[in-house]
Design goal:
heterodimer; A: mainly alpha; Four Helix Bundle (Hemerythrin (Met), subunit A); B: alpha/beta; Rossmann fold; Helicase, Ruva Protein, domain 3; 5-stranded parallel beta sheet; globular
Amino acid sequence: MAANVDTAAQEAGENTLIPLRSLLEPSAFRDIVVLYESTLHKTMEAIDEAARRGDTVAIGRNAHDLAGLCGQLGSGRATALARRIESACTDGDGGGASALVPELFPAVAETLAALAELAR
Amino acid sequence: MTETATRHVLLVEDTLPLARSYTEFLKTGPYTVDHVETGRKALNYLKRSMPDVMLLDIKLPDMSGLEVLERMGELSPHCPVVVITAHGSIKLAVDAMRAGAADFLVKPFNAQRLKIALANLFERLEITGEPGSAPRLMVDESTSESDQPDDGSFAGFIGSSPAMRTVYRVLGAAAASKASVFITGESGTGKELAAEAIHRLGARRDQPIIALNCAAVPRELMESEIFGHVKGAFSGALADRDGAATLADRGTLFLDELCDMQIDLQAKLLRFLQSETFRPVGGTELHKVDVRFICATNKVPLEEVAEGRLREDLYYRLHVIPIHLPPLRERGEDVIELAEYLLAAAALEEGKTFSRLADDVKMAFRTYSWPGNVRQLQNVIRNIVVMNAGDIVTMEMLPPPLDRIVLPRSIKAVG
């Protein structure tokens, strides 16, 4: 399914946190990174649980949040997948949305790895 | 905006990391920020306090940003709002603008984008007194008394309708600034005249205004038309040639039908706007100029952004002072003022004796929708004057399609 994701949307965007690294105290910057990390974990858990329950509305709502978070971090693949899942939910295609969820885990893992790198 | 003025921002965003990012972005500029996570908290906040601007996420957990916009009208009608929308939701942003939002930002955005949007907003507020695209009246003290529309005319425009008086005031105020101006309006409403008025009334009046119609110049020549070229840049480039950017140095560059400019050239135009430097086609040397930008379109810029025909970042850069020229059908009695003015001018030029319009002709003019606006009215009047003789313009003299207008019997008598 990943091959279907719009190529343009997969392009890595700008990680908008990078300029903040040089502007903020290291501890303040780490706080932001930790906030992103914990919210990404919580949102992924919420999507996973909602997919198990077949709760299309909750999948869509959390995918929307995830797209916003990953977009801000310049993670093209995770953003594009989250948008596709949100779009499927909006169209009432819960099955299609749930089928994409497993692909989201490795994509968000990449995002988390990039975040961890940024915090070093 | 004034560099040192600190503005207070109310940020309404339920995704905490995003809220934290936006807050840090703003803190690198002259902003203080209060953050709330829900629409209800935002409305409660507005009962107690008045921020300089509200940054409002459209998708909130308890209500939509559109509902917040509606409900805040009673609490803080003068608080400008910039809505934050997700990628692919620009149609929602258009709805928000219609509901009174001053501008929009599409996620994701960086610190620079956010600060440009707010700086543009506050610049608009200072210049026009209105954050949105339909500025309310505000007299600008730097505009001379003779520029004020006391007699229903202003810098080449004719008409004293409230809509046009608003336009005159904003034109006068915009002339005193170097800020970019984005003129919108249907064909024939006077966009080029508005651009010329801004240039003529401003400090650059003694310098050139260079106009380029992005729809009229062939695509392959457009870059050279704007930035010029060096000898040998392409076949036919037999010598170095200055483009509009160089010719407009210290003056004004007017880009008409901007939305028709090809998207890759829009990227180059954006770089030019940001840096005021450019390279001629085929050249290596950077040229620096001082140019004031005015652009115009007969399309709806936000819809063009939504359709991917106008770069969103270019829109942000240019949309500092929006001026909308109303269509003639929304200008009330202006159609008669204009017709009489044009009649006198055409009669003088053609050596005719026409001096007034019959009452039923006036009614026909008021009834007709004028899809071609003032330009169409101008052509109709010229046609009447050339093709007829007499002192009064009568219904029989009207060219198509005005000759097919059916008026109520009670006003058919010639005045």
